[in-house]
# Entry
Amino acid sequence: MKQWPAKNDVKNEATLQDTNDCAVALCVNQRNLAPALLTASRIARQSKTKDFDIVIASLTPLPIPDEFQDLGVHNVVLGISDDLRSVGIKQPWPAAAYLRLWLAREFSETYRRILYLDADIYPQAADYRRLMNADIGAYACAVVLDKEQWLNPDDPILDLARYRSKSTNYFNSGVMLIDVAQYNRQGLLQQLLDRYRAGIDSPFKDQSVLNLVLEDNFAQLSPVWNWQWTHRYPMLTKLTRPFLLHLSGLPKPWTSHESATRFSSALIEEYKAFFAAQDAPLTFETTRRGGLRESLRDQVTNLGGHLDVWGRYRRQMRKFPDPDTALF
# Structure
């Protein structure tokens, strides 16, 4: 039987015994613990079987309340502070965003596959184990293209153009299915750190480092596994019924008291109640259900935008008739 530490203790990889061979992993600091716990708890409750682990990785111990440990959610402290300093990645932020780069190394003797998720991922019903067992060929990672490439699939967007990459496919790193053995066999961690040391001037640093090193050397997953249009095109979100909603960019549901959003009122209220229950740093209050909303004029403009992208949306989705099958 797998031996977990006592509640409120920290679990390190070296203490794991008889683990599952796959895991969902989130990498956060104290500030982003609450959204990570919401993500992790939804996955745990949606999964009929407990045949994968759910870990929240961090640089320092994080308090995981008993109710989440009872669901199988555990904190893992990664002892990589010296590694971060050696390449000039400062703590406490944005260091947490870079922890994903070390997951395959730190869990090399524990997991076969790791499904990395950003903390602003909102899971809907899905078969996560089936995804973690997906055929991704000899690739180390399976990912979803960035939302901008759903509309302009042939354009070298963002830092691909700036750094004259040979690739024309730029992926969003908020969801990454990692094949641990391939990642380590290909020496990707060292390649990524070398690229970071070489310098990169971009607001998408960790994501762009991944893109510039991999350069199309990845399998593609359906957009339903990293749906980045949750706020931008809410009608298409409802139509598609994606598995993982990525609340990428701004605004977030937890900033709905500061700026108008198109998120559903139910989604905003769920985050509001969850953060309040956890007494989280991101706790917020709204003066009305669903927070601030757009004007009628802005809503009509947004609806028109749906029509503009409809054809390109359909072409992108037709590439993935089976959402559980990767392209490579």
